[in-house]
Amino acid sequence: MKNPFVVLVEMIVGAIVAFLIYRSLMPQTKTPDEVVAAAIESLSDADFKKLRNCYSDRAWEILSGSLPSERDYAARNRLRKYMEGFREVRIQSTLATGDTAMVDAVIQYEEANEREIFHLVHTERGWRID
Fold first, then answer.
1. 109, 118 in Cβ contact below 8 A?
2. Are 112 and 101 in contact (CB under 8 A)?
3. What average pLDDT does this structure show over 43-59?
4. Burial 16-44 (b: 16+ CB within 10 A, else e)
5. Taking residues 52-58, what's their average pLDDT?
6. With DSSP H G I counted as helix, E B as strand and the rest as coil, what are the percentages for the chain, rounded to 5?
7. Is 87 helix (H, G, I), strand (E, B) or coil?
8. Alpha-carbon distance 16 to 91, whole Å?
9. Is 56 helix (H, G, I), strand (E, B) or coil?
10. pLDDT score, position 78
11. Global pTM?
């Protein structure tokens, strides 16, 4: 017969391992601030797969029409060149109410700053720019 203390420790360790496995399998939920920062950084890298994950289906349908195709290397390089001056995203404020959020951000470039207000919705996949 096992010592009750050993059984208790085994149960606790098993529960912790199960929780860690469960958590690793769940998609990581980002805050509205993190989604906005990820979108700007993805655009800066011309990484449209990551950028897609930052937008709602409706917004992506509109935005994707203005992005260069995967095969248009020249246009993607022009975008990367344009975004070379990108330095950081500074979140000024965030207001989340239910399934909507508004993020006021300043995008800092070498030469100037650009202030943007992003509207987000909470979808089954998490927060997305809408």
1. no
2. no
3. 90
4. eeeeeeeeeeeeeebbbbbbbbbbbbbbb
5. 94
6. 45, 30, 25
7. strand
8. 35
9. coil
10. 82
11. 0.71
